[in-house]
């Protein structure tokens, strides 16, 4: 409506040039009438882009009017009479809206008859019409028009009432039908009786004028705001069928149901799946040939409807806008329905999409635009509204939409990697198009990652797994690695914060690659890494190109959207990326040492796997970084040789005969290079101690100036137990062996011991003793006769007895515990072991708190008394790695120190050290 | 005794200036200084030596510390608590920290503003020294002053001539800074 003002101004100027100022004054009434009537026309035209034709016709008609009114003032009376007659003839009997509504589906002739619209005019009327036609055709128009303006508006207002209940199906169709009928009714007498009176060259103009007037009324009284959603709905309904989107939705259902083998034969299909299976020739025709009957019907229906729409004046620009909107949504819908989850490689999705746009999408657009044309003249000439360039533009848009879809799916695509590489190919096409797309892709993906991956609920293994997939997928997506660089930052930051990241990576590296060949999602190890290590090794040997290779003729600068500190990674090297997570190799190597230590201490035939991994890692990190690990491995192989020698010595010196208790093998570890062992020490049986001493002498004879320190808690023992009616042979830990050894007795009575006794005897913590005892209970060697008292189970109860025991268990607690099944005992043993572990963890925590206590003492000594908050703040600054306890925990701790008399609280709640 | 000579030797301001010059354009140095100081603090906390203690001030950058020395037994300082301030330059440990006695002390090698004459804090400084070694040196300095180059000539004289009078001076000058 904004443009109304200049147009009105323009019209006034036209009027000014046609009317002399005097004539304006002479007929102020008619002019003002005219102006009032004209306003809606003006507003209608203002929204019309192609107004040149109309503006011309307008000004000519003004001229006619102006001329006639100017010159015929003496004949005013005759004119008035004629006008009256014409008005009577042309006036529309207001039979009401109901009629209109009821007859909306007929061709209207019946109604016309009923309304007496087809009866020829009487002689006087005909004369009057002729006279009017001759003198001032505009008057006739005015007659007609004012009628419409009043009655038409009334009818349309009734239609408007319908609009208030927009839920009704096909409401717009009804409205359009009604309007079409109305139009026919109003135009019938004009077409039949007036047109012949007008000279042929003016006929077209006159009719157009009338039409436009009708359109104006319709448009003016039907608010577009209400029409447009209805129109959009109508369009969507049919477009969904024509574009094949509905069949796609069905397909996904059908796929589930068509297990019975009845494959639907469909020559015509827009489905990507069908298309992909076809040969290239079939592909080319699939969307063009053999259109579905439903589609044809839908198209005919839609086009007929749009025809009507255009006729009653609801077409044009605004309808085009709605159509454009609908088509926009359709494209998105189609892409979503057709390609979501279609990730197979090689991907032909873009080709399919382009073909669809060209053959189906563009076709519909051409059809529709030919009808709802903003320019009535253009509609008749059938000018091509859709150029080939438009189609190309849509194809580009389609690809962009596809990219968008893929970006939103990207997370799932990555999780499914490598089964989903096709999707990444699609995405690659999208991101290659513009740098905005790259930014968009990374941003969306980052958000997705944050929401779905980087939260405490995801296990580190999962995160690493996804990270590995990301590395691989993004390497294909963007070989330069800029996108990966951008995506990986938050992940890397997050992984750095996770405590067990190093552990997972290292254990992954040390895992057996043979198991990695199977399904990699084994849960708690990243066995994939081990395979990767050997694989990537071959690669890195081949293309070891550095950034400063001046002979590289294919060198290109870093992409423009690379981050300032972007560093091109050599390849999609997963291991490198993971290891570089940490600031220094030290963290990594340290963890490597711990894990390696655990594995090396175990009794095994060989350690080839560890050696291989270490060699491979050495290629990456250099020898010096992994020196400690190297020493560890060497220790193990050395001690095997040494063990042999020592044993030979022992044999030669005749020790063997006396050494009846068993064989002792030792692994000699260089303490400096091995990580600290947390195991709690205890006293081993005397026989073992003797063996150890003997072994040590032999060792010291071989290796001067070296001393052996026995780590009793580490190691394995092969235990053979002979009981009255059963035997046991297995490999157990030294701790378990020591405990069961304590039960050894020569007497026929089964030995009975309590936990405190054992703890004293073995100098072991009661929790550990209990854990070991429960282990033996689970092996059915011991039984817990009462709480914390264990007895050797010399006679394994037969099944009958067991049943009996179960039955008796109802009455006696003792027999109940005796019969307690081994699974329970095993669980209990585990629980006890966990308790023991917790105990040592608590001890470690206490140890830690001791360190903090030192800090607090140092702080309070040097800085004077301090309040709790300040202490916490200072601890956070001063303690490396931060202070993990809360204010409350610290308050409790300091409270304990106050009660111990090490601290005192001075004025203002400050803590002060007591000297 | 020429005090001004000694003053130039006790070149606290100079050291600071030098460190400023050195530190310009070496931002990463601050990082390594912090790391080193943190390590030293950890070491002090994990293996505390009797009679000495040190802790960073509350300004949060770890470059200034306060230390406490308990007077060694069988010296005039026995039972006294002496506070010191450490100011670490940005290129620590390549330059020595500036160490001052905060507690007023009567000592041949310490002047009345607390400045200390100790070779390892000046030209004999080496990067292997640390807070704890400096504190131990100072602790031993309390028992064995270097009277060859005194900052407080009277104290040096008195130390050699009259230990009882010296101790009286020490106690007279000493006042606890603590518990303000």
Automatic annotation (TrEMBL), chain A:
Signal peptide: none annotated. GO terms for molecular function: ubiquitin protein ligase binding. Keywords: Cell cycle, Cell division, Mitosis, Ubl conjugation pathway. Residues 529-777 form the Cullin family profile domain. GO terms for cellular component: anaphase-promoting complex. SUPFAM superfamilies: Cullin homology domain (SSF75632), Winged helix' DNA-binding domain (SSF46785). InterPro entries: ANAPC2, ANAPC2_C, Cullin-like_AB, Cullin_homology, Cullin_homology_sf, TPR_ANAPC2, WH-like_DNA-bd_sf, WH_DNA-bd_sf. One of its GO terms (biological process) is cell division. It holds the Pfam family TPR_ANAPC2. It comes from the Eukaryota. Belongs to the cullin family. This is Anaphase-promoting complex subunit 2. It comes from Penicillium rubens (strain ATCC 28089 / DSM 1075 / NRRL 1951 / Wisconsin 54-1255) (Penicillium chrysogenum).
Automatic annotation (TrEMBL), chain B:
One of its GO terms (molecular function) is ubiquitin conjugating enzyme activity. Residues 32-179 form the UBC core domain. InterPro entries: Ub_conjugating_enzyme, UBC, UBQ-conjugating_AS, UBQ-conjugating_enzyme/RWD. SUPFAM superfamilies: UBC-like (SSF54495). Signal peptide: none annotated. Its EC number is 2.3.2.23. The keyword Secreted does not apply. Keywords: ATP-binding, Nucleotide-binding, Transferase, Ubl conjugation pathway. The active site is at 117 (glycyl thioester intermediate). The keyword Nucleotide-binding applies. PROSITE patterns: UBC_1, UBC_2. Belongs to the ubiquitin-conjugating enzyme family. This is Ubiquitin-conjugating enzyme E2 2. It comes from Penicillium crustosum (Blue mold fungus). The lineage of its organism: Eukaryota, Fungi, Dikarya, Ascomycota, Pezizomycotina.
């Amino acid at each position: 409506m904004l443009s109304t003002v200049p147009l009105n101004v323009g019209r006034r100027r036209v009027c000014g040039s046609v009317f002399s100022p005097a004539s304006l004054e002479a007929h102020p009434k008619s002019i003002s009438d005219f102006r009032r009537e004209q306003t809606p026309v003006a507003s209608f035209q203002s929204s019309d882009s192609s107004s040149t034709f109309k503006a011309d016709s307008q000004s000519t008609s003004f001229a006619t009017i102006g001329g006639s009114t100017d010159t015929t003032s003496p004949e005013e009376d005759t004119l008035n009479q004629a006008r009256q007659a014409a008005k009577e003839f042309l006036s529309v009997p207001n039979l009401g809206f109901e009629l209109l509504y009821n007859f909306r589906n007929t061709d209207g002739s019946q109604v016309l008859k009923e309304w007496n619209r087809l009866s020829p005019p009487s002689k006087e009327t005909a004369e009057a019409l002729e006279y009017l036609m001759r003198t001032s055709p505009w008057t006739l128009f005015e007659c007609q028009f004012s009628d419409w303006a009043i009655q038409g508006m009334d009818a349309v207002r009734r239609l408007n009432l319908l609009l208030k209940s927009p839920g009704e199906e096909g409401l717009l169709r009804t409205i359009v039908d009604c309007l079409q009928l109305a139009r026919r009714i109003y135009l019938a007498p004009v077409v039949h009786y007036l047109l012949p009176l007008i000279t042929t060259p003016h006929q077209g103009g006159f009719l157009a004028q009338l039409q436009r007037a009708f359109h104006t009324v319709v448009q003016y009284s039907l608010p577009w705001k209400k029409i447009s959603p209805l129109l959009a709905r109508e369009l969507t309904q049919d477009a969904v069928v024509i574009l094949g989107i509905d069949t796609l939705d069905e397909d996904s259902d059908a796929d589930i149901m068509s297990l019975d083998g009845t494959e639907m034969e469909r020559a015509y299909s827009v489905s990507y799946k069908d298309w992909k299976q076809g040969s290239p020739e079939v592909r080319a025709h699939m969307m063009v040939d053999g259109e579905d009957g439903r589609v044809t019907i839908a198209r005919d229906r839609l086009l007929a409807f749009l025809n009507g729409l255009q006729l009653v004046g609801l077409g044009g620009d605004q309808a085009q806008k709605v159509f454009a909107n609908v088509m926009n949504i359709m494209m998105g819908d189609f892409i979503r329905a057709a390609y979501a989850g279609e990730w197979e490689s090689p991907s032909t999705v873009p080709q399919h999409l382009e073909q669809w746009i060209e053959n189906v999408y563009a076709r519909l657009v051409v059809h529709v635009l030919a009808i709802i044309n903003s320019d009535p003249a253009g509609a008749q000439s059938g000018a091509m509204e859709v150029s080939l360039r438009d189609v190309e533009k849509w194809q580009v848009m389609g690809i962009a939409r596809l990219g968008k879809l893929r970006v939103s799916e990207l997370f799932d695509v990555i999780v499914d990697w490598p089964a989903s590489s096709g999707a990444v190919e699609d995405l690659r096409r999208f991101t290659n198009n513009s740098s905005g797309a790259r930014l968009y892709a990374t941003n969306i993906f980052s958000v997705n990652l944050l929401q779905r991956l980087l939260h405490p609920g995801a296990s580190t293994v999962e995160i690493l797994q996804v990270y590995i997939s990301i590395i691989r997928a993004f390497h294909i997506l963007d070989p330069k690695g800029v996108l990966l660089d951008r995506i990986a930052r938050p992940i890397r930051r997050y992984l750095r914060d996770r405590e067990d990241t190093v552990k997972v990576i290292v254990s992954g590296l040390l895992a057996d690659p043979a198991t990695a060949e199977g399904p990699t999602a084994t849960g708690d190890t990243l066995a994939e890494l081990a395979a990767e290590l050997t694989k990537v090794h071959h690669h890195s040997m081949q293309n070891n190109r550095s950034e400063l290779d001046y002979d590289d003729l294919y060198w290109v600068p870093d992409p423009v959207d690379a981050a300032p500190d972007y560093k091109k990674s050599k390849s999609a090297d997963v291991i490198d990326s993971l290891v570089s997570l940490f600031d220094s190799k030290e963290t990594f190597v340290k963890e490597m040492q711990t894990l390696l230590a655990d594995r090396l201490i175990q009794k095994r035939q060989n350690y080839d796997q560890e050696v291989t991994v270490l060699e491979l890692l050495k290629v990456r990190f250099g020898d010096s970084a992994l020196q400690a690990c190297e020493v560890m491995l060497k220790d193990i192989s050395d001690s095997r040789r040494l063990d042999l020698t020592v044993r030979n010595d022992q044999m030669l010196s005749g020790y063997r005969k006396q050494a009846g208790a068993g064989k002792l093998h030792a692994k000699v570890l260089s303490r400096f290079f091995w990580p600290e062992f947390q195991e709690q020490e205890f006293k081993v049986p005397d026989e073992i101690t003797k063996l150890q001493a003997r072994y040590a002498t032999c060792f010291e004879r071989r290796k001067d100036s070296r001393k052996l320190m026995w780590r009793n808690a580490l190691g394995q023992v092969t235990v053979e137990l002979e009981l009255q009616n059963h035997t046991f042979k297995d490999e157990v830990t030294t701790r378990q062996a020591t405990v069961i050894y304590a039960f050894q007795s020569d007497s026929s009575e089964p030995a009975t011991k309590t936990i405190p006794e054992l703890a004293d005897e073995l100098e072991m913590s009661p929790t550990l003793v209990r854990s070991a005892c429960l282990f033996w209970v689970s092996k059915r060697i011991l039984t817990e006769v009462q709480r914390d008292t264990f007895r050797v189970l010399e006679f394994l109860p037969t099944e009958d007895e067991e049943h009996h025991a179960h039955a008796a268990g109802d009455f006696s607690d003792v027999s109940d515990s005796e019969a307690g099944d081994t699974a329970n005992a095993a669980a209990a043993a585990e629980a006890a072991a966990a308790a023991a572990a917790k105990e040592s963890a608590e001890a470690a925590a206490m140890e830690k708190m001791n360190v903090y206590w030192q800090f607090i003492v140092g702080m309070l000594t040097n800085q004077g008394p301090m309040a709790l908050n300040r202490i916490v703040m200072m601890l956070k600054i001063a303690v490396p790695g931060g202070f993990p306890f809360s204010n409350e925990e610290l308050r409790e701790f300091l409270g304990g120190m106050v009660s111990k008399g090490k601290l005192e609280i001075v004025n203002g709640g400050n803590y002060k050290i007591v000297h | 005794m020429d005090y001004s000579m000694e003053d130039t030797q006790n070149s606290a301001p100079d050291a600071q200036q030098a460190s400023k010059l050195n530190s310009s354009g070496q931002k990463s140095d601050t990082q390594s200084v912090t790391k080193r100081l943190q390590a030293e603090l950890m070491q002090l906390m994990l293996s505390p030596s009797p009679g000495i203690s040190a802790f960073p001030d509350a300004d949060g950058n770890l470059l200034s510390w306060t230390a406490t020395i308990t007077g060694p037994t069988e010296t005039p300082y026995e039972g006294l608590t002496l506070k010191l301030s450490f100011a670490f330059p940005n290129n620590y440990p390549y330059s020595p920290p500036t160490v001052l006695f905060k507690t007023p002390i009567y000592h041949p090698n310490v002047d009345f503003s607390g400045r200390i004459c100790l070779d390892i804090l000046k030209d004999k400084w080496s990067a292997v020294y640390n807070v704890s070694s400096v504190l131990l040196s100072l602790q031993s300095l309390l028992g064995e002053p270097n009277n060859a180059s005194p900052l407080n000539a009277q104290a040096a004289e008195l130390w050699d001539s009259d230990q009882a009078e010296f101790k009286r001076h020490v106690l007279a000058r000493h006042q606890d800074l603590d518990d303000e």
